[in-house]
Structures are given as C-alpha cells and as structure tokens.
UniProtKB/TrEMBL annotation:
Protein name: Universal stress protein
Residue ranges constituting the UspA domain according to the UniProt record: 1-135, 149-287
Pfam families (UniProt xref): Usp
Family: Belongs to the universal stress protein A family.
PANTHER family associated with the record: ADENINE NUCLEOTIDE ALPHA HYDROLASES-LIKE SUPERFAMILY PROTEIN
Entry-linked Gene3D superfamilies: HUPs
Amino acid sequence: MTRPITAGVDGTEESLAALDWAAREAVRRGLPLRVVHAWRYEEHEALGGDRDAQRGWVSDGVAESVRTVTGRYPELAVAVDVVEGGPVEVLVDAAGGAELLALGSRGHGRVVGFLLGSVGQQVIAGAARPVVLVRAGDRATAEAAGREVVVGQQGGPEDSAAALEFAFGTAAARGATVRVVRAWTLPPVFAYSPGSLKLLDESGGMEPYEKKALAEAVRPLRERFPDVPVAEHVEMGSAGEVLLSVAGRAQLMVVGRRAHRTAVGARIGSVAHGVLHHADCPVAVVPHG
C-alpha cells in the first residue's frame, strides 16, 4: 500500500507552510498528498444551522488553500478530506495511514503551540508515524545545497533505528548529507560497574567509546544508503543543547520520541520538546519502533 504524505490544515499561516512543505516532500518522493481538516459542526447564524451548508463552507475554504499547492505542483496527486471530529483524534488517525504527517508549529515564545495539553503535543504523542512540525516562515530556499538533515542518536543501535531510517530516507530523496549527532555526559562515579569500566578501558575513554557506539548504530544505514553522505558528530553535553548547536546548518532536524502519559496528559521527551520550541527549521518527531 502506498502511504501518502499527509498535511493537517486549519487555515493558519503555520498550517499553510506545513501544507507547502508536505507538497514539496510528496513531489520529491513520488508520493500522493493527502490534506486533512478536522471539522466539528457548530451552530452558525449565517448558515441557519444547516450542517451540510456549514460543511460545504468549510470544504470550500480548505479547497482554496489546496489550490495554491496544486498550482505550484501540477504533477502532484492530491486528495482532500474534511473529517468531522476533534482535531487530535482526526489527526492521529490520519497519521496512522501516512508516510508522515506535517503540521504547523508556532515554536518558542508563544503561549500556544506544543506546550502541555496542546493539540500538537497530543498528536505527536499519539501518532504511530513520524510527525513533522513546520514554522510559518519555512521556505523552499532553506532546503538548498549545503543544508543537512540532522538526526539525534542515543543508546544502542536499536534505540534510534526508526529516527535514523527516517533521516537517511529523507536525505536520499533530497540529495542531502545526514549529520548524526550523539551527545554524552560523564556519569557519576558511583554508577560505574566493573563491566562498564572494562568497556571504557578497551575503548580508550569515554569519547572514543561514544564514537564507536555511534559508528555501530550508523553502519547499517550506511550500507542501505551508500549514496548518502554522512557526518558523524559526537560532542559532550546534553542532547538538546548539542542538537541545537548544529541546528543552523539543518534543513530538517529529526528526533526520536518516547511518549508517556501522566495524570495531567501526554508528554513527549525533553529533547524533542526543546528542539521543537527552539529549532528554526522543520522538526520531524519519529516514534521509536
């Protein structure tokens, strides 16, 4: 089954930027584009409470937004769905059948966006497929030659496998370099075990050990995508800080996520949360497989 690139739209400037980003990505990958709008019937004086009339009015507005991208990319196959329901439920469901779901992001400095309890965070936490967040100022020129696809790697090879696969596949479609970033910190002395000390000693210290771990995680992707240039980046510091330190060279940042639920709602990891708020480029959040 061919999965489309899917964009959630709501008429905001951010969602229209996400729509254009999704259209470009669909053209690159030779995939269809699906545009989804979540709609709920509301009493509306101008429409006299007519459900069908209101749905038609909403559909016309979505179609107007879509005409912009179909004019730019006439070869692109586009499907438009106005789905009745809450935005979180509709978008999570749409993501399940998509190659990826693109949404608008307001980033840092705003009360709304991807803070606790927002639609965006709940969609990211619940989606079974990658979700890409796009700022209103995103432009195709940011994907010019020299800008990289940056992806975070942590733990063993299996821990970031899904994020790495997404990053390499995206870079292959764009002809871009992948920069794989692994951050490390000195653990407390009491956390060392005889086994871990032996591994560190055999590797020559912490940084060589981390470089070796990164190389092992990347090796299967190098073999699968031999034409994709790769830069392996190991740096001491917190994962969020190290990723943001190289964000200026990125056309896309890719982070994995382990969503978990608390008594006050869904939460995503601190690294994904920080990158979403502070990176200027689009950010892809990929659920761990």
